[in-house]
Design brief:
Elements: H1 4-15, H2 21-41, H3 45-48, E1 64-65, E2 72-73, H4 75-87, H5 107-123, H6 131-151, H7 162-176, H8 181-191, H9 209-229, H10 246-250, H11 264-267, H12 282-295, E3 302-309, H13 311-317, H14 326-329, H15 333-343, H16 353-356, H17 359-366, E4 368-372, H18 374-381, E5 390-396, E6 405-407, H19 417-435, H20 438-449, H21 451-455, H22 459-465
Parallel strand pairs: 3-4
Antiparallel strand pairs: 1-2, 3-5, 5-6
Length: about 475
């Protein structure tokens, strides 16, 4: 018998029916937010240089569109392209758990394969796939990433969280391709063979790979799914083999485990709405933006800045000393806070060299103390609370200080949906305007914001709307 984790994943993907309106509605917002992130990423040459076919000029009949471009590619390459765009700016949604993940990294693989299948079906006289299928696949892929992240702290073993994406997309895409339960098991087993290092997200090694690592994983997932439905065999003891299994080889004998799956992750996903920065910094930046009007005229009078956060923040984004590149800077809490306090904003462009050369940023970084608040850590680790608490207070040379600004839940948290969704829509429409003429903007926005109309839209017709 295959390992139980593989069987549970396959049973969920093959048999679970999405029925909740909240899950689908949130999935729609997740989709449009992911597309908005992609449109913004198209402004960044370091990202766009990675896009397009492997061989320039390649024509792919019934290929998948890459939103915001004119590329129409094979599904594996399209999955990489879309995934790279969605993830590049660290502005897409997040799930905080023992292993933090970015669930909407799955949009690349799901949208690419669904688009290709819809075009191929129409070409052969069959009905197209609808966007409802895309949203349901996203719900399942989000759930697998998030629940497995709750159970398995991969980065503690040096493994990148993109493995969870590869597992989820291998399962969901196999099912989307018409694969059986056994073929889903085979595809997922193949995904476990290739975990990658998480080195590129930490310390002085932080680099642009973190913008495309998930894209690479999603592209591999499409390959494994395609192989599985063609009959490629799987490996039933990939996790538990006593000598060479995943648990023994990569986890030091600790069991990789799963849990019951439903739609909880999509319903409770964290959106990044105000600024592109790692999730652990979102609350702190919101606090810094609130403080901006109080300190903007007194920057030279600041004596110290006190930051309090939880243990995960200190472990991941507490950095002193030189920062090598934009990817390094957006994983530095002190840098992000300094920019937000100075300018009253934090945008992707603020991580580039011309902004980073402002000597005031490093001066403010040097005035900051970042300490763990144990109550914040408890609230962060408690799955019933799902808090991301941070606080910030500025002290001046004349003995005065600002109030301590504490933010427990950033605006993208599910407890702040009524406040956050209008801002998420504004973010999406702002990013539409970066790429499309006004008439096309209106057409895309109207379709995306009409829930029932979007669900009933053929996938290939939707992606055709996104061609520039």
């Amino acid at each position: 018998m295959p390992d139980g984790v593989l069987v549970d994943i396959a049973n969920y993907v093959a048999n679970y029916s999405v029925t909740g309106t909240l899950a689908r509605e949130t999935a729609r917002y997740c989709l449009i937010d992911s597309l908005g992130c992609a449109f913004e990423a198209l402004d960044h040459p370091d990202c766009t240089k990675l896009l397009g076919p492997a061989v320039p000029g390649t024509i792919v009949p019934h290929g998948a569109r890459v939103p915001g471009t004119q590329f129409q590619l094979d599904p594996m390459t399209a999955a990489f392209n879309i995934g790279c765009l969605v993830r590049w700016l660290d502005f897409n949604d997040t799930w905080v758990a023992a292993q933090t993940t970015h669930p909407s990294d799955d949009v690349g693989a799901i949208l690419a394969v669904a688009d290709h299948l819809s075009r191929a079906r129409v070409a052969s006289g069959k009905p197209p796939l609808m966007m409802e299928t895309v949203l349901d696949c996203m719900i399942k892929a989000h759930e697998l990433q998030g629940v497995l992240g709750m159970e398995n702290a991969l980065s503690s073993h040096g493994i990148d969280h993109a493995l969870l994406l590869k597992i989820a997309c291998s399962a969901v895409v196999t099912h989307l391709l018409g694969g059986s339960r056994d073929e889903i098991i085979n595809a997922v087993s193949l995904a476990f063979f290739e975990p990658s290092l998480c080195l590129h997200r930490y310390g002085s090694n932080t680099g642009p790979r973190k913008g495309w690592a998930a894209a690479e994983a999603s592209s591999q997932a499409v390959r494994f799914a395609s192989m599985a439905v063609k009959g490629e065999s799987g490996y039933p003891e990939i996790l538990t083999h006593g000598k060479w299994g995943f648990n023994k080889t990569f986890l030091g004998g600790k069991a990789f485990s799963g849990a019951p799956y439903g739609s909880t992750v999509m319903e409770n996903v964290l959106f990044k709405i105000l600024c592109p920065v790692v999730i652990h910094a979102q609350s702190a930046i919101e606090g810094a933006l609130r403080l901006h009007p109080q300190v903007t005229g007194r920057i030279d009078m600041i004596e110290r800045i006190q930051l309090l956060s939880h243990q995960r923040t200190l472990r991941t984004i507490d950095k002193i000393g030189p920062l090598r590149n934009a990817a390094d800077r957006d994983h530095c809490l002190q840098y992000a806070v300094a920019v937000a306090m100075l300018h009253g904003r934090l945008a992707a462009e603020d991580y580039e060299d011309d902004i980073a050369s402002d000597p005031r940023i490093d001066r403010l970084r040097g005035l900051m103390t970042l300490e763990e608040n144990e109550e914040y850590t408890k609230a962060y680790l408690d799955p019933k609370q799902r808090k991301n608490p941070n606080s910030i207070q500025v002290f001046f040379k004349d003995g005065t200080s600002t109030d301590q600004i504490k933010v427990e839940h950033p605006v993208g948290h599910p407890l702040r949906r009524s406040e956050g969704i209008p801002l998420l829509i504004q973010k999406f429409e702002k990013n539409l305007a970066r790429r499309f003429p006004r008439k096309q903007q209106r057409s895309i926005s109207q379709r995306c914001l009409d829930h029932d109309a979007l669900l009933k839209t053929p996938v290939h017709e939707f992606t055709d709307m996104l061609v520039i």
